[in-house]
Protein RER1 (Peromyscus maniculatus bairdii), 196 residues
Amino acid sequence: MSEGNSVGDSVHGKPSVLYRFFTRLGQIHQSWLDKSASYIAVQWVVTLGLSFVYMIRVYLLQGWYLVTYALAIYHLNLFIVFLSPEVDPSLMEDSDDGPSLPTKQNAEFRPLIQRLPEFKFWHTATKGILVAMVCTFFEAFNVPVFWPILVMYFIMLFCITTKRQIKHIIKYQYIPFTHGKRRYIGKEDVGKTFAS
């Protein structure tokens, strides 16, 4: 009788029931993610609803402030990475080894490629809220802290990091948000507009 040599193999060479269960669960999860990709507004409404439910839970339980602080820092970090370009223009300033953002008025337009795409930003932010929610069910994560200090620390950290990111955005003149595809009006489009 030979033993299985790959992960999830049982003794007889077939995948174990547990391995098949988690594989199938992962496929269902990925299927739902794929279906939800085109419903951006719904995704963010669900995430905001989950965060609202989480805040109500923390308020009613009067605890888990350290978990909430960690969640806020995590979301701040995700937001800063979301606002950042994939290739930092400050590193590419001196070299001509690849794409860079335009720094002059007549420079060629190159679209911003974010370090963290919006879908991954939403997905990881939602997972963070769910993990924090699960933590509120375990008393071990309810570390007693003086919460006003955590709020002050978070406000200071938020101001410092966003100020630095805004300075970076202004210095290298890139817009981290896009509002859909640009539409250019050509000669034939102008004629149609005036004829209407």
Residues 8-37 form one domain. The chain is about 60% helix and 0% strand. The chain has a mean pLDDT of 80.
